[in-house]
């Protein structure tokens, strides 16, 4: 990762809890470290291959002048999101907003808020075994593409598999989805539940039939053992219907807990259960990016 640094950008804007702060305004200083890939721009000496720091500075100034926030925490959060959405070559950023004239009644140099935000690589498992299985999955993919905080959505091929978990039901159509997101793991989970709800999913029987099932398999290096959101998915190494499509998208992606790659997990599972014998429907694979 390479970086562009912007230091002590002066912006006169109206942000603060007190009405006088928003009415009269005051000087703020902004520091930004933009994580991106600068090799192409450096080798070819072409500005189009880089992020124009002049445009970024004007964007920051304009945004902070056109929007009003009570808290500099909110100003930083919303500005970071706007920068990441408007400048697609920025992979991550560290943003600091400094307020030298904070009205606290004590001598100090300044108060500042610093946050780090960026696009996260995510892999999902997707499945359906009720009604129009492919239709439910396709609509879920379109829902993902329609979310502003999600981009570069790619799908594996789809496979038909027997139910997992011992509940008698119809066969599943399964696949995997790759995407990048600005949503936190918890926010992403909530959005996936909304997509499942739109598909009419009802959570009545554990491992039972469902119109749509969306699971977070990997969320970059994030690890959580919270029962509400366990990431990486705790049982993926035992699920052929997860590993087969996932291996199409990221065979060498490593589980941050075990250190095993998807390809290694699949190979170990095939030793126990034998090679995958289902028909992989690669003609259904879709790849679509959203800048």
Shape: elongated
Radius of gyration: 23 Å
Spatial gap, N to C terminus: 19 Å
Strand content: 25-35%
The number of strands is: 12
Entry summary:
The relative contact order is 0.12. The protein is 31% helix and 29% strand.
Structure in words:
With 291 residues, the protein is an alpha+beta fold. Helices cover 31% and strands 29% of the residues. The protein is built from eight helices and twelve strands. It has helices spanning 19-24, 39-44, 53-66, 72-86, 133-145, 185-198, 240-249, 262-273, and strands spanning 2-13, 26-36, 92-99, 111-118, 120-128, 150-155, 158-161, 172-181, 213-219, 224-226, 229-231, 280-281. The strands form three sheets. Strands 5, 6, 7, 8, 9 and 12 form a six-stranded antiparallel β-sheet that branches. It has a four-stranded antiparallel β-sheet with strand order 1-2-3-4. Strands 10-11 form a two-stranded antiparallel ribbon. β10 and β11 (229-231) form a beta hairpin. α7 (240-249) packs antiparallel against α8 (262-273). The two termini are 19 Å apart.
Strand and helix map with partners:
Layout: E1 2-13, H1 19-24, E2 26-36, H2 39-44, H3 53-66, H4 72-86, E3 92-99, E4 111-118, E5 120-128, H5 133-145, E6 150-155, E7 158-161, E8 172-181, H6 185-198, E9 213-219, E10 224-226, E11 229-231, H7 240-249, H8 262-273, E12 280-281
